[in-house]
Amino acid sequence: MSTDSQPMGGAQPAGSLAERSITLEKEISRSDTHHGIDPSLETYASIMATNKPDMRGTGYIKLYLLAGTIFLCSTMSGFDSSLMGSINALPNYTEYFGLPATGNASTGIVFAIFQVGQIGGALFVWLIDWYGRIWHIFFGCLGVIIGTIITGLATNLPMFIGGRFLLSFFATLTTTAAPLYLVEISPAAYRGTIAGTFNTFYYVGSILATSSVYGCHKYLADQGDLDWRIPIWLQAVCAGLVLLVVKFFPESPRYLILIDKHDEAREIIIKYHTNGDPNHPLVDLQMKEMLQSVQGIPKATWKDLFDLRVLVETRSSRYRLMLNMVFSWFSQFSGNNIISYYLPVMLDAVGVKDTNTKLILNIIYAAIGWISATCGARLHDVVGRRKMLMGSTCGMAICLALVAAGSAGKIEYNNNAAATLSIVFIFVFGAVFSGAFTPMQPVYPAEVVSNRMRAKAMGAYKITSGAAGFLNTFVAPIALSSIGYWFYVFFVFWDTFEFTFIYFFFVETKGLTLEELDVIFEADNPRKASIEAKKKLQAIYKESVVTEKSVV
Fold first, then answer.
1. DSSP per-residue codes, 490-521
2. What phi-psi label fits residue 352: left (phi over 0), alpha (psi between -120 and 50 degrees) or beta?
3. At 301, phi and psi to the nearest 5?
4. Predicted local distance difference test score (pLDDT) of residue 252
């Protein structure tokens, strides 16, 4: 690798590998000065049992406020995704662009172009390692505003589709960098809760979108195309708010470590993880772990931004990439996109014809999903990722089986009770999926990869989820109109397969720092090693608490 290329992030030119290793060794030794820190599961568990930072301290409150602003990026994404599902139910919209109310290939393209833009945006995720996470969020929000303007002014279907492509492309920049940023800046004990809550705000956007469409349709349906154009313009609101403040936020400490800005990284850990206490043992532990994760690695240059070998160079990295991509596929191809995008069509199939009723049910569906996802974000840090995901896939299979049975009863025998059953379990399915998958959609793929892999792996995550979403949303209207409720039956078997795969291969990440997961993935069986580590952490925590009480 050439050392005379321009380094990332505007840092000083990289010296030799030997010089950088010496510098890192000095930094690591500095981290050991006060506490003799040994970066191990035992050390972290003991610190958290006896000297856990106050989650209500000033540093944590500042972190919550910062995260709350970043959550608006997810609100923006949820607004756009749910907007099309609601607008698709408006006669003014379908008539304006000449689309049939029951859906066809053109309808599928309007929805699926979002996934195409997502895949396109994912190809530029590597820029995160050049100019940082904050700039990526900034440029993404700026692009979303541009895409909204084009879509809002669209006078024909190609222009509308083009605007949605740009909106999706730039939204992907934002919604890739934002959760990655939260994963890297959040304390390990609350990473699932803080970073997981990000995606729950997708439902806030969904509720706002469906509510705005409902209100505009109710009061502006006789005003030409205003009932669907006004909600489209509202897509720019969240992006605009984030755009105004995000450049005042601190960078990710792990990105700062990658570009050799160690003192800045330490200050961020002190401020947000230990409530301003520079002598707290967590500061030295986390600094040493982060520094050791890059020890012996040359500073990345322009050439490294395009080098994908880091994703597959070892058995550990290949296993990590597999989990990243498989979870990405599962999170988009479990039956969830059918319901979120085509709920009005599904309701029509079981006898719900009134447009306002469909919109209200859309709002209720989103509200149930938000409540469930918010609870699930916290439960992931209590119950753990594996149990939550396995419970969800099992529940989804049962729900879709009942949805299929209810749909068959209504369609084949005109049984209204069966139709009611189908609608009820559509909503139950939404709650079951949201509780486990929604909080982890952008978090688990970022957790399971190393610091060096993360930016490129998040690109793989977006490409995979975009491909799954494209297949799902483009095929769904055709499948629903061709084979009807048998499409739900297919997902019953698919979700059963997901349960089995998660059980045998998924790694538990609860309570472990991102660097401690490096040790887990080096094991012969990472899944087994993660479960054993979880049990060990619980035992150490209990022992440390007992010891602390006996000393007192």
1. HHHHHHHHHHHHHHHHPPP-TT--TTHHHHHH
2. beta
3. -120, -175
4. 95
CB 231 within 8 A of CB 377: no
Cβ-Cβ contacts under 8 Å for 400 (sequence gap 6 or more): 335, 425, 429, 488, 489, 491, 492, 495
Structure tokens given for 372:
């469930």
DSSP H helices in 234-280: 236-245, 253-258, 262-273
Closest CA to 328 of 180, 444, 429, 431: 444
Answer whether 172's CB lies under 8 Å from 140's CB: yes
Question: What would the two tokens of residue 230 be?
Answer: 């006004």
Would you put residue 36 in left (φ > 0), alpha (ψ -120 to 50) or beta? left
Pair of tokens at residue 368: 């149930």
pLDDT at residue 49, rounded to an integer: 81
Closest alpha carbon to 461 in 229, 199, 203:
199
pLDDT of residue 267: 96
Tell me the whole-structure pTM to 2 decimals: 0.81
pLDDT score recorded for residue 343: 65
Long-range contact pairs involving 53-58 (C-beta distance under 8 Å, separation at least 24): 53/187, 53/273, 53/274, 53/275, 53/277, 53/280, 53/282, 54/275, 55/190, 57/275, 57/276, 58/275, 58/276
Task: Note whether 91 and 250 are within 8 A (CB).
Answer: no
Q: Which residues pair with 7 in a beta bridge?
A: 301
> Is 6:300 a contact under the CB 8 Å cutoff?
no
Alpha helices in 123-275 (DSSP H): 128-131, 133-152, 157-185, 191-220, 226-233, 236-245, 253-258, 262-273
* Residue 291 contacts residue 12 (beta carbons within 8 Å): no
Residue 7 phi/psi, 5° resolution? Answer: -75, 165
Rounded to whole angstroms, the Cα distance separating 49 from 434 reads 31
Take residue 496 and report the two structure tokens written for it: 């059963």
Instruction: Going from the first residue of the chain to its last (552 residues), give the mean pLDDT of each consecutive group of 10, the final group possibly shorter.
Output: 39 46 51 46 80 92 96 91 78 79 62 79 84 94 94 88 91 92 93 93 85 86 85 93 96 91 95 95 91 70 74 94 96 77 62 74 81 93 94 95 84 77 85 93 93 88 83 73 78 95 96 89 93 81 65 54
CA 77 – CA 61 distance, rounded (Å): 25
Token pair 């000095």 is found at 26
pLDDT of residue 2: 37
Which tokens in the block code for residue 306? 């395009």
Bridge partners of residue 301, in order along the sequence:
7
> Residue 301 carries which DSSP code?
B
CA distances from 19 to 25, 266, 361, 362 (A): 10, 21, 63, 59
The whole-number pLDDT of residue 375 equals: 94
User: Please, what is the Cα angle at 384 between 380 and 390, to 5 degrees?
Assistant: 100
Q: Supply the pLDDT for residue 13.
A: 40
Cβ–Cβ under 8 Å, residues 447 and 517: yes
Q: CB within 8 A of 104, min separation 6: which ones?
A: 477
Per 3-state DSSP, the chain is made up of helix, strand and coil in percentages (nearest 5) of 80, 0, 20
- Residue 500 CB contacts under 8 Å (≥ 6 apart), including other chains: none
CA dihedral 501, 393, 387, 190 (to 10 degrees): 110
- Residue at 275: amino acid letter: N
Tokens representing residue 528 in the block: 């087994």
